[in-house]
Amino acid sequence: MRIAIIGGGPAGLRAAEIAAEGGASVTLYEAKPSVGRKFLVAGRGGLNLTKSEPREQFVTRYLGPAAEPGRWSSLIAEFDPEALRAWAAGLGIETFIASTGRVYPRELKAAPLLRRWVQRLRDRGVQFAVNHRWQKLRPGLPVTLHFDVHGASHTVTADAVILALGGGSWPQTGSDGSWTEILLELGIKVSRLEPANCGWEVAWSPEVLAVAEGQALKNIVVRAGEVAAAGELLITRYGLEGGGIYQLGPALRAMREPALTIDFKPTFTAEQLVAKLGGATKNLFQIARERWRLGEAALTILLQTLPDRTSAEGLAGAAKGCTLRLSGPRPIAEAISSAGGVSWSELDEGLMLRRLPGVFVAGEMIDWEAPTGGYLIQGCFATGTRAARAALRFLGNREQA
Ligand SMILES: Cc1cc2nc3c(=O)[nH]c(=O)nc-3n(C[C@H](O)[C@H](O)[C@H](O)COP(=O)(O)OP(=O)(O)OC[C@H]3O[C@@H](n4cnc5c(N)ncnc54)[C@H](O)[C@@H]3O)c2cc1C
After folding, report:
1. How is 341-365 classified by DSSP, letter by letter?
2. Separation of 25 CA from ligand 1 center, angstroms?
3. Distance of alpha carbon 349 from alpha carbon 312, whole angstroms
4. Domain end among 301, 329, 357
5. Average pLDDT of every residue of the chain
6. For 33, 151, 185, 228, which has the most beta carbons within 10 A of its beta carbon?
7. How far apart are CA 303 and CA 319, in angstroms?
8. Quick one: DSSP state of residue 173?
9. Residue 146: beta bridge partners?
């Protein structure tokens, strides 16, 4: 049983692990000179492996069109956050749950985990073929795969293939989304890759930037249409970054004229804020800054967006709902992840492409998205696990037939 895995991110490495444990002869093909480059980037600010959260809530974080109801419940049930922590412990990597529920390796870094993981895969017989850029697939059993290896073409066959080619963000790590063309040519429905968990552009005035650039807006609630999220916003030269706006990505992308509304004082009503001003009619901003405990950055943004600068009600209303027009998302190359990818309708329960028997798909290249918080890596592990188990079953069934 020869299983070819293409793509050496967490989804592909996990699929290789399951396939090798299942007794297959596994080769993992990777375009870059080494595997796990985006995984290493993810570890730079602390590798958030998963999240400790009740299962019912956890599975609602996975968004995207046309995922059959219950699909994520079933995928996460197959490899859940506890299983991921136990898996890391098996590599000698202890994890901890932060106060936010986010789960990290004790050392925070990705490199020690990746090193041990790759070594264990080698010990289990997984062959690594790096500098192999996948270019084409000829359907049939066995499946024929064409690679570019340092400019020369190289052809191999495999009894089953697992594609784990990632999304389209941070192309320098190897995940450049160029696989979409190959699958589209094979008649597979793929939705356009779009930036997710990304910054958005705002045309800040020089006055706002002079005061607020580099500052974080904290303890706020942000809204895009009907969707609300709590989380920080970081003011940058080009616009906004941060957990608050990342969570609103799907809602913002769906708006014809994307706009973000900030509630700077979510624990007070507008009436309570007015009352705190104590009937003052002069120096309203000064008094509001002190009595509402508004930071410089928030105050400056309010000043720039407020049509009515004189009334307490106008100021309180703006503090509760300050709307900023967004010019668009930052480029996909800068995003943490991407939305879009292989349509769920193309996949069976085992993540096999219905049109290409023996070819399975895992990881971020499927049409789903999730906020930051560890859901992305957990989703990659869960889909890698499912695809590899299904590939083993597929081959077992064929051998018996
Ligand atoms: C800055 C940053 C921080 C992040 N932090 C976190 C975090 O803390 N927690 C979290 O859950 N997620 C985080 N993520 C997201 C997470 O890293 C990704 O969701 C995850 O790596 C996707 O895994 P994957 O296996 O699907 O694909 P990838 O990790 O993207 O791997 C795909 C692999 O396929 C290879 N490939 C692509 N095309 C070809 C081809 N034609 N031929 C051969 N090989 C090819 C690529 O070189 C790559 O190695 C972060 C991402 C970024 C950019």
Report:
1. EE-GGGB-TTSBBTTSTTEEE-GGG
2. 24
3. 58
4. 329
5. 94
6. 228
7. 10
8. G
9. 136, 155
Q: Are 105 and 93 in contact (CB under 8 A)?
A: yes
Q: 3-state class of 377 per DSSP? A: helix
Cβ–ligand 1 distance for 336 under 6 Å, the answer yes
- Helix, strand or coil, per DSSP, at residue 234: strand
Residues 63 and 158 in one domain: yes
Number of domains in the chain: 2
Is residue 13 domain-shared with residue 157, that is, in the same domain? Answer: yes
Q: Do 190 and 205 sit in the same domain of this protein?
A: no
pLDDT band at 173 (very low <50, low <70, confident <90, very high): very high
pLDDT in tens, 111-138: 999 999 999 999 999 999 999 999 999 9
> Which residue is closest in CA terms to ligand 1's atom 13?
42
Ramachandran sector of residue 278 (left: φ over 0; alpha: ψ -120 to 50; beta: rest): left
- Write down which residue in 292, 312, 329 finishes a domain: 329
CATH value at residue 58: 3.50.50.60
Instruction: Say how many Å lie between the CA of residue 12 and the centre of ligand 1.
Output: 10
Within 13 Å and on the Cβ side, how many CA atoms surround 134?
A: 31
Pocket lining: 380 vs ligand 1, CB cutoff 6 Å: yes
H-run or E-run covering 397: helix 375-400
Instruction: Return the residue whose CA atom lies nearest to atom 20 of ligand 1.
Output: 377
Structure tokens at 276: 């705190």
Report how far apart, in Å, the C-alpha atoms of 221 and of each of 51, 202, 276, 290, 383 are: 21, 18, 20, 20, 32
* Residue with CA nearest ligand 1 atom 41: 134
Which domain range does residue 156 map to?
2-195+336-400
Taking CA atoms only, the protein residue closest to ligand 1 atom 7 is: 48
- C-alpha of residue 38 to centroid of ligand 1, in Å: 4
Question: How confident is the model over 197-240, as pLDDT tens digits?
Answer: 999 999 999 999 999 999 999 999 999 999 999 989 999 999 99
Q: Which atom of ligand 1 is nearest to the CA of 165?
A: 34
Is residue 331 within 8 Å of 183, Cβ to Cβ? no
Q: For residues 75 and 130, state if they share a domain.
A: yes
